[in-house]
Request: fold
Amino acid sequence: MSRLQTVVIGGGVVGAATAYYLAKQGQQVTLLEQGELASGCSHGNAGQVTPGHLPLPQPGTMWRNLRWLFKPTSPLYVAPRLDLNLIQWLWQFNQACNEPHLRKATKVLCELGEASAVLFDQLANDIGLRYQNKGRLEICRSEKTFSAACEEADLLQECGFESQRLCGNQVQQLEPAIQTDVAGAIYYLNSGYCNPQELVKQLATAAQACGAVVKQNTPVTDLRIERGHLVAVVTAHEEIKADALVLACGSWAPQLAHRLGMRLPVQPGKGYHLDIERPPA
Reply:
């Protein structure tokens, strides 16, 4: 009996991890990336592994988030345009800014995060990932920000994620590099970090070692559908048989999902982080 052929579209952390775990289970997998591996969001993120965190939609934050969404220098930017899908997405976002949704979504995210944290520890052994679980320090310069951070920590505490509140000098005692006066900080004990590009490339290499095929610089141009069923993924150079498909291509996913008669409420956004060179020991 022949094995099912799964095609994974997207060579970021989600696509590479999917290819690795499927191949590890003995599945026949092909991973397609339109550019280089880890060249999108998996290149630009800060590599934090934070099992416990809140969703973006929160009570009372709709207007702040809207200002962020359309401000090019904000932590979360979405290009304004006349687009029905964007309008629908904004409406759904607004509907999710309430207390019941916040608690429900936080619980789900924390459960996923807790399971992921265990897998990161395993990946450190299985593929040689340089992963360090030393905690995360969330520093607040103003009392208002510190108060909001404490409320967030209280909710995460309900979901089982321990944290410590640090005030004034306690922050500098824990991290002497903090020279600026701060109102306080939250120290999350169960949080780690890794190099995101290394993670993706190591996952892809491990997937190949398990039999997966990885193709870079291979943009997907179409999906071939016969009698309502997916039969192949079309690239610029070939058609690849597909019994199953995983869309792990971020903001490009809705375009391909549309070919399958599905609507994914996903919008492209842009954020930023700052890399600081580690000072000599």
Observations:
- The chain has a mean pLDDT of 90.
- The longest strand covers residues 220-226.
- Residues 99-126 form the longest helix (28 residues).
